[in-house]
Amino acid sequence: MNTSNLPSSSWLNAPAHAAWRLAEAQRLLAFAKAAKLPDGFGNLDAEGRLAPGACAETMNTARMTHCFALAHLQGMPGCLDYVAHGVAALRGAMQDASYGGWFAHPGGHDDSGKAAYLHAFVALAASSAVVAGAVDAPALLADAIQVIEAHFWSEEEGALRETFSRAWQLPEPYRGANSNMHATEAFLALADVTGNSLWLKRALRIAERIIHTHAAANGYRVIEHFDALWQPLPHYNIEHPADHFRPYGTTPGHALEWARLLLHLEASLDRAGLQAPQWLADSARALFDTACQQAWKVDGAPGYVYTLDWAGQPVVHARLHWVHAEACAAAAALLQRTGEAHYEQWYRNGWDFIASHFIDTHGGSWHHELDATNQPAGTIWPGKPDLYHAYQALLLPGLPLASSLASNLAANVTRR
């Protein structure tokens, strides 16, 4: 990690803070291991149990595989077996042997569609598993890259297409910022694992469209929904405002996540000897600052609300754990990049809030959702199925901005 910009008093320099993050990450890992099923990983309830008859899900399996790969690279014994289990599941009944790509659930012949969001996580999981040394991970990675190249990546648009039917027909006349955001994350990892800077150039093209073109023209509020010609759809899902993946309005948590990813992209481009435009850092600042100004304590209680309308008023007041995890990770990235004191304050503020409200010392893991009064809730995200956001937020502050997480951890072990 580059500490040249950091004030000596920064929590990022504090051994006790690093030890706290590591201990919390280990606690999350121990809880998440109960999600293992014969055909992948399932969703845990608030007490860390699988429901009777629980089924594996491809998204959760991909995310868990990625996280256990990171844990193995940290030196956590026993985690490589969980990586291998996830890789086997993703190469088994979750993979469509007839048409390629991945089902949302093992053997999912209900033709629920092939979604870019899901496939971005499969690519991320495969890349991390390769770095971790899982035996069958290179084959999984090759399959994931082939599917992205053949079906999702649009060279003309410089972004991912969204969803297809099972046989890669009936493309959805929709484009989403969320799937392309996670594609940006996956492409940073693919660039490291393959050594091919093409993935960095593609990540930059996505960021140019979503952030430099649309968000910048919208006061650095991320526009989430577009038609097939990339025309904004400001009223999309107005009747379903609390959707898990496509909520109405603007999602401040995604602005925070984008802020971090732009700094990773800037650092990765620089590391590869490619030009990193100034707008990457400028946009990262603007996205973070705007999200904090508009979403933190906007309804009177501390915490970031889930969504805002286009007038800046809260729509869904719930506080989601992933939003606050991303706020901490983004503040750490901006602190590393700039050394500015207000990012240190936001970083400390974020962890203080998480420690006081989200960390569940009784039931384990983190509450995934709080209501408007910061009491545990489960309207949008029942249970505790997600390891990915919290675990990454605990690792990222101790690492350089480049390269991607798995490669970074592997290099960090080598440096020591």
Can you offer a commentary on this structure?
With about 425 residues, the protein is mainly alpha-helical. It contains 13 helices and twelve strands. It has a single domain, classed as Alpha/alpha barrel (Glycosyltransferase). Strands 1-2 form a two-stranded antiparallel ribbon. A two-stranded antiparallel sheet has the order 3-6. A hairpin with a 2-residue loop joins strand 1 and strand 2 (about 40). The model has no long low-confidence stretch (mean pLDDT about 95).
| Count of distinct strands | 12
Poorly predicted runs of 5 or more residues:
none
Rg from Cα? 20 Å
Percentage of β-strand residues:
5-15%
The average pLDDT value, as a whole number, equals: 96
Order of helices and strands: HEEHHEHHEEEEHHEHHEEEHHEHH
Question: Helical stretch count?
Answer: 13
Number of domains: 1
The CATH architecture term is Alpha/alpha barrel
CATH topology: Glycosyltransferase
Identify the strand order in the major beta sheet. Answer: 1-2
* Biggest sheet layout: 2 strands, antiparallel
> Which class do the helix and strand fractions yield?
mainly alpha
Helix content range: 40-55%
- Termini Cα gap: 13 Å
Tell me the name of the CATH class: Mainly Alpha
Shape: globular
